[in-house]
Amino acid sequence: MSFLSDAVAGPPANIIKLAQDAPSPRVAIARAGAPLPMLAAKEATEANMMIPLFTGERADILAEADKLDWDISGFEIINAEGEAASGKAAAEACGRGDADVLMKGQLHTDAFMRAAVSRDAGLRTGKRFVHIFHITTPDGTKSITISDAAVNVNPNLDTRKDATQEVVSLLHKIGNPRPKVAFLSATESPIESVPSSMEGRALRDWAIENITDADFSGPLAFDLIMSPKAVQAKKLTGDPVAGQADAIIVPDIVSGNALFKSFVYLSGGCAGGIVMGAKVPILLTSRADPSAARLSSIALGAIVAASA
User: What Gene Ontology terms describe what this protein does at the molecular function level (predicted)?
Assistant: First the structure.
């Protein structure tokens, strides 16, 4: 028997609606001339969630648009050859105010992020860049948010504080007035031999003191984050987050990446991802992302851009 789910989740209706109700942002797509980024751009443009600005090889961009029977003559194309030049062109378009969202196309993640963090791009704000996944169940009724599963490998406490603030801010923007945030470890008790548990308690205490309109708990093991039954069994019923978390702050990229992929591959969740902390929202889409995940990511970018 396989643990893998055959469920196919669509993009979350509430997130799509919020994006469609916001002004359509200008989205600079780094190296857009490939099937997946062009299809995502077409679908999101036709859904009134974005206005594309294409960077990359002009001939490839026009060829892919032609395959989709999509007339892009009304949109700007910045011709750039190769990954580095395409990423630079897209990031700098955002930095000078010609685009409101930066989106990864057909280029490697390290090349894309190198362009985004370059001082020449003008996207740095003094905050740390943190990645957030907002994952919805196949029926769209529940969601969980995870940071950081894709950018910061071994985030220190200051980075996780930034991540916590960004997660709360994002959840406020998408309609959760008081999110419940858990700090992940392997235990609910601070134990010196488990560093993430000590850090989870320190982060909880800091968050309670410094962030309003949210509830926090930590350290919490995964069962106590997700399962009301586990909460009952371990007698944590007075905890404001346990068994009902809206968000999980992870101690490292391995646990975050494993959690995100578990929600997607084992429960059929739809994961929209966004990088926060820059001048504009950054969409770090993957070649493995289905269409629904790409649309969800673009919708998140539109919502955040509208609130800037």
Answer: phosphate acetyltransferase activity
Using an 8 Å Cβ cutoff, are 62 and 72 in contact?
yes
| Burial of residue 52, with CB atoms counted within 10 A of its CB: 0-12 exposed, 13-18 middle, 19 or more buried | buried
Q: Buried b vs exposed e over 123-142: b needs ≥16 C-beta within 10 Å?
A: beeeebbbbbbbbbbbebee
Per residue of the chain (308 residues), give pLDDT as tens: 578 888 878 889 999 999 999 999 999 999 999 999 999 999 999 999 999 999 999 999 999 999 999 999 999 999 999 999 999 999 999 999 999 999 999 999 999 999 999 999 999 998 999 999 999 998 888 999 999 988 999 999 999 999 999 999 999 999 999 999 999 999 999 999 999 999 999 999 999 999 999 999 999 999 999 999 999 999 988 999 999 999 999 999 999 999 999 999 999 999 999 999 999 999 998 777 788 899 999 999 999 999 97
Residue 161: phi and psi, rounded to 5, are: -65, -45
Q: What is the largest CA-CA distance in the chain?
A: 63
Round to whole Å and give the CA distance between 215 and 179. Answer: 6
What would the DSSP string read from start to end of 17-75?
A: HHHHHSPPPEEEEET--SHHHHHHHHHHHHTTS-EEEEEE-HHHHHHHHHHTT---TTS
Please report, in angstroms and rounded to a whole number, the separation of the first and last CA atoms in the chain: 47
Structure token digits, residue 151? 């950018």
Q: What's the CA angle centered on 282, arms 258 and 74, to 5 degrees? A: 130
Q: How far apart are CA 171 and CA 300, in angstroms?
A: 10
